[in-house]
Structures are given as C-alpha cells and as structure tokens.
Amino acid sequence: MSTKLLKPFRDYSEHDVLNLFSYAGVVPIDGISAGTVVYIANDYKQSDGNISNFLDLSSVDNTVSSLFSTVGKVSTVVNYDDLPAPIGITLKDIREIDENGTPLIYEPRMCAERNIVLPHQAVPILTKGVVSIGNIDKTDRVNGGLTPDPVGGDPVYVGDNGRIATDGEIVIGKFLSSPDQDGFALILLNVI
C-alpha cells in the first residue's frame, strides 16, 4: 500500500472540504495516499459548457450507468513549481485494486472500512484546517529546506510528487510543530 501521509488527528470545518472533483489520470498500483497535494485538471465548463452538469452519466441505448463520475477532475502536483496552483490535499486514499489484486469497484464495504475512494468517485479535498502529515519533502530549493521551525513561523510549501515541503515557491500553510520521531508534523493548511 502507498505511504501513509495523514494521521487520524484532524481539525477542520466541513465547509473547507471540496467534494466536487474526482481523480484524473492513472492511479498507481499502490494507490494515492490521503494527504497528497492536488490541483484542478479539468473544470466543469470544459465538459459541455453547462456548469449545472456536475455528474458525468454514461448512457448507452437509453440506459444510464450507476457508475457516474464528476466532470471536474484533480491531479497530483508533480513538481514544486507547477502551475496551476494547488487547491488542497486529499483526505482519503485513492485506489482501484486492493493489496491482493482484487478490483475495489466490487468491494464498496471494504472501501468504506479502509477510507478509500475509487478514481471515478468524488475525492474529498481539504483546503483549510489542521492536520498531522508525514513524508515531508526537505529538499533545499530556495530558502534551505531543513527541519521546520514552528516558533520561527516556517511556512508549508508544495513539494514534488504531491508532498508538502519545507522549502519551495508556493506557500500553502504554516508548520505548527516540528516533525516527531515518525516524521509527522502538525500543519495549518490554508490554500488560497
């Protein structure tokens, strides 16, 4: 399974969670972890020009599929200086198959128990709140990415491959703690 990025400790309002976008692109075998930084890859107006169509219903011969997806899509931020700017972090893992190779599309209960969404389903995206996040990118880019100092007010940046970083160009929050022995730090996320 993919590397865990988020611990269960979270403090946010549901008003700061977007549930309008599904995942665009290919999902790796081990999935995409909760806590991955994402950006808008496809908005609603790019479908048919009518913003009232939030769902993409597949139909064949007057039969509508029960497997609908959202028209709006998000993708993982690949590089720390990518544009367009990020909109937030995922709150659930995104996977297509489990660790045994079984397609999760046939296991809705397993998805619910493991806090997993399928790529065609709406992915909850946090734009503002407090989370405990790990696998922090400490690459030196502009200002010397080392261990974050919350007393000094070190900002949270966008890193490579959907990770948050201690150095970069795009600020998405502020560190509230230094990383613990497992590499998890408390951050205040505020993507504008």
| Helical percentage | under 10%
Between the first and last Cα atoms, what is the distance in angstroms? 31 Å
In terms of quaternary structure, what is this?
Answer: single chain
Order of strands, widest sheet = 1-14-18-17-15-16
Estimated share of beta-strand residues? 25-35%
Structural class: mainly beta
Largest sheet: number of strands, sense, barrel closure: 6 strands, antiparallel
Number of strands: 18
Please trace the helix and strand order, writing H or E for each element.
EEEEHEEEEEEEHEEEEEEE
Q: What's the Cα radius of gyration?
A: 17 Å
Instruction: Give the count of structural domains.
Output: 1
Count of runs of 4 or more consecutive helical residues: 2
Features:
192 residues; 2 helices; 6-stranded mixed beta sheet; 6% helix; mainly beta; 6-stranded antiparallel beta sheet
Notes on the protein architecture:
The protein is mainly beta. The chain has one domain. It is 6% helix and 32% strand. The chain is built from two helices and 18 strands. It has helices at 45-48, 108-114; strands spanning 6-11, 17-18, 22-23, 37-42, 55-56, 59-60, 63-64, 69-70, 73-76, 86-90, 93-94, 116-117, 125-126, 128-133, 155-158, 164-165, 171-175, 185-190. It has a six-stranded antiparallel β-sheet with strand order 1-14-18-17-15-16, with no helix packed on it. A six-stranded mixed β-sheet has the order 2-13-10-4-9-3. Strands 5-8 form a two-stranded antiparallel ribbon. Strand 6 (59-60) and strand 7 (63-64) form a beta hairpin. The longest helix is centred in the middle third of the chain and has 7 residues, at 108-114. The protein is globular and about 50 Å long. The mean pLDDT is 83.
